Amino acid sequence: MPRGDGTGPWGQGPGTGKGNGGCEKKTAPLAVIDAGTCVSCGACIDTCPAGALIMKDIAVVDTLKCTGCGACVNICSAGAIALKPR
Q1: Res 26: pLDDT
Q2: Residue 83, exposed/middle/buried by CB under 10 A (0-12, 13-18, 19+)?
Q3: Which of 84, 44, 79 is CA-nearest to residue 60?
Q4: Which residue, 10, 26, 37, 70, could crosslink 80 as a Cys pair with Cβ 3.0–4.6 Å?
């Protein structure tokens, strides 16, 4: 039973990937968009297999959906997207 002190039920801290029912902290890279370089073409949105990009004034990454696959980086003709460590 959890102790209510911020540690997992088996004494492990959150996100350690140990003692938390097999869940692991997401360690894949994250797509990051340079707002000054993005030309709002939408190519990244159309190519993202995870549906992690939406268009506002520029493309925006949903960090909970991004799998770090790099499809958006490869399709971006403006060079506005890079993969960064989480």
Answers
A1: 62
A2: middle
A3: 44
A4: 37
